[in-house]
TrEMBL record:
Gene: opuCA
The protein's Enzyme Commission number: 7.6.2.9
PROSITE patterns, per the entry: ABC_TRANSPORTER_1, ABC_TRANSPORTER_2, CBS
ABC transporter domain: residues covered: 2-236
Domain CBS: 254-310
Family affiliation: Belongs to the ABC transporter superfamily.
GO cellular component: plasma membrane
Name recorded for this polypeptide: Quaternary amine transport ATP-binding protein
SMART domains with a match to the protein in the record: AAA
Annotated catalysed reactions: a quaternary ammonium(out) + ATP + H2O = a quaternary ammonium(in) + ADP + phosphate + H(+)
Amino acid sequence: MIRFENVKKKFGDTIILNNISFNIEPGEFVVLIGPSGCGKTTTLKSINRLITPEEGKIFVNGQDISKVNPVKLRRKIGYVIQQIGLFPNMTIEQNIGLVPKRLKYAKSEIKKITKDLMEMVDMSYDEYAHKYPTELSGGQQQRIGVLRALAASPPIVLMDEPFGALDPMTRATLQEEIVKLQKKLKKTIVFVTHDMNEALDLADKIIFMEHGEIVQMASPDEMLANPANDLIRDFMRKSSATSDPLNLTAADFMRTNAISVYKKRSIRECTDLMARQHIDSLLIKNEDDTYAGIINIKDIKKHGKSSGTIGEITPYQNITSDITENAKDSFDKLYNSGDNYVVVLNDDKTIAGIISKTSMATAMADTLWGDMQ
Ligand SMILES: Nc1ncnc2c1ncn2[C@@H]1O[C@H](COP(=O)(O)OP(=O)(O)OP(=O)(O)O)[C@@H](O)[C@H]1O
Ligand SMILES: [Mg+2]
């Protein structure tokens, strides 16, 4: 589908691509990875003739692209640049329809293409098609950028760090989507990243570049098992250190400043504390610091007496999470209970923190796990 034969590119006297050769099969998902400046973008742009190499040959579909009209060539190749580049004065529908319109599809067909594509990434056409890019979140805009590249149904799609600017949650969602889309639409994708996790997750084949040369070209499994040099090994090590959002735990999301009191504190002290802190419940601790439950201002009122200790009131046993519990499981618990927060406990049952519905966690959870409420 795409073949490089001894491709050489110079800028001035500097060699940017030094005898690059590789072959990409139809339907393959190939990831180009390597340090900044190694020539990934230059390689990508050579495929759609935004850059012309001095030496060597590039074939797309068996045709030497130096002999193909660049405009014609680019119609067969979708391109997602790093800054997505949606047109701010056009609606989402107009943005997606840009290429099909240029290819003179009928209006009704453009609408159908837009609708179908939006459905594939779970964005409701009625809700979003008529919005403008600024009315969408960064992740949603990125999704539209990807859809636009796919819209004219080109057999080849080039993507230059399409998810680079996104938070890990949104990135994970979009990675899943792009893999699904590729499988469904059977595209040949060349995808640039410098994130090894992303490469390992997405690629059928990884091409690792350094100083304009290919250091290793291998499947993710092969590269994991036998990295060709120290630089690749280093990329692998760094990537395994950064956490996969699906492996986040309760500890990554909890707030550690929850207010707690021992059972022996007087009720009066507790109500004063609640008034001062503008909170309507307190976490109660046993003498050995283990967690005992929650007491709400309503429980205190029901108790009727303002004398005595808070320990005389039976605390409410709300839901708790272990500190090592998967973040998604903690969120699920929270949303399936009527409680406003989950108390996160250390191994020894002391209080580590709380995860509340109103904390940032909600937004993060929404992105990754969809609407939960
Ligand atoms: N138009 C240009 N003129 C001169 N030098 C350029 C030009 N474009 C790129 N270069 C140089 O070519 C080299 C490779 O650039 P390229 O954009 O392909 O790197 P990259 O691997 O995509 O890096 P990054 O990860 O930072 O995006 C760099 O050293 C860059 O400075
Ligand atoms: Mg680049």
